[in-house]
Structure formats: structure tokens, C-alpha cells
Design brief:
The protein has 5 helices and no strands. It has a domain at 46-132. The chain starts with 10 loop residues before the first helix and ends in a 5-residue tail after the last helix. With 137 residues, it is mainly alpha-helical. It is elongated and about 70 Å long. The protein binds heme C. The site of heme C has 21 residues, from helix 2 and helix 4. Heme C (HEC) binds next to helix 2 and helix 4.
């Protein structure tokens, strides 16, 4: 290889370049695309439940066109207005969303065969809290 007139890339630049290639060479900065890291303490809000549980562990199947597309889990209204009583405000223990997360659930979600990490006990506690607070913001 002929000697380049440009200075060589340092480690950090190489890492960034590799990440950009891995992301498919997007035009936009890949920074904003990075999945958010889960905070130690999850807030009982739709926003955080959506980001760290639903998008991370459910939506691959629960979106139109996928295996559970008839039960979408994309928006707050998908949860609150669902014919499956996914969220019964104030009553976490009667909410379909909680029933499928219980360790002995008949149809435990996410299905074990999917290889997706189970929803952790801490996450379940926070979802229950959100529902018992009324399932709003
Ligand atoms: C690998 C695909 C997949 C993932 C991931 C997944 N589900 Fe499901 N889920 C399904 C399928 C398929 C059904 C429909 C089962 C049936 O027909 O009885 C279902 C059914 C359900 C139901 C209805 C259960 C019932 O009583 O009929 C709920 C509620 C549910 N899922 C919630 C979730 C939640 C919450 C997550 C994430 C924590 C999740 N699912 C992750 C595939 C998935």
C-alpha cells in the first residue's frame, strides 16, 4: 500500500467508523439512533415502559404484519383501549399486560422460544405501579 498523505485514524475514529458501517452507512449521525441505556431505576411512566420494555421486548411481534399483529403494543392507546383489557387503570392485577408477565402465566410473554430476555421483576413492579397510578403519562 502506498504511504498515505493523511494521518492514520486513531482507535476512537476506527470504532466510530466501524459502528457507522455496521449501521449500514447512514447519512444521518448514528448517535441519535443508539438504543437508550436502561437507567438503574425505571420511572413508572409510559415513556420509559415503552422504551425499555415494549420496544425492547415485545414490539418485534406485536406490530401489524407480525405474528401478534392483532394485539399491537405500540402506543398508549393500544394498551388503554385494547379489547384484551391490557391495562385496567388502577387494577394492575387484572390487567392483561401484567397477567402475561407472571412467572406461571399460561401464555408467558415474551415467549421463551423467542430468545428475548424476560421482563425483570423490577420492570414488572414499575409497570404495575404505572397501571395502579392510572396508566396515564
Ligand atoms: C416472539 C414473538 C412475541 C414476543 C416477543 C411477544 N409476544 Fe406477546 N404474543 C405473541 C403471540 C404470537 C401471541 C398470540 C398468542 C395466541 O394467539 O394465543 C401473543 C399474545 C400476547 C398477549 C395476549 C395473551 C392472551 O391471553 O391471549 C399479550 C397480552 C401479549 N402477547 C403481551 C406481550 C408482551 C407484554 C410482550 C413483551 C414483554 C410480548 N407479548 C412479547 C408473540 C410475541
Amino acid at each position: 500500500m502506498p504511504k498515505s498523505p493523511y494521518p492514520s485514524l486513531d482507535r476512537e475514529q476506527l470504532t466510530l467508523l466501524a459502528a457507522w458501517i455496521e449501521a449500514g452507512g447512514p447519512e444521518q449521525s448514528i448517535d441519535g439512533e443508539r438504543p437508550a441505556e436502561e437507567p438503574d431505576v425505571l420511572l413508572p411512566t409510559f415513556e420509559s415502559i415503552n422504551t425499555f420494555v415494549l420496544k425492547a421486548k415485545c414490539v418485534v411481534c406485536h406490530t401489524p404484519g407480525k405474528s401478534a399483529g392483532n394485539i399491537p403494543l405500540l402506543t398508549k392507546s393500544d394498551l388503554l383501549d385494547s379489547p384484551y383489557d391490557l391495562v385496567v387503570p388502577g387494577e394492575a392485577d387484572s390487567s392483561g399486560l401484567i397477567l402475561v408477565l407472571k412467572i406461571n402465566a399460561r401464555k408467558k410473554m415474551p415467549p421463551e422460544s423467542s430468545g428475548i430476555d424476560a421482563v425483570t421483576p423490577d420492570q414488572i413492579t414499575v409497570i404495575k405501579q404505572w397501571i395502579n397510578n392510572g396508566g396515564q403519562d
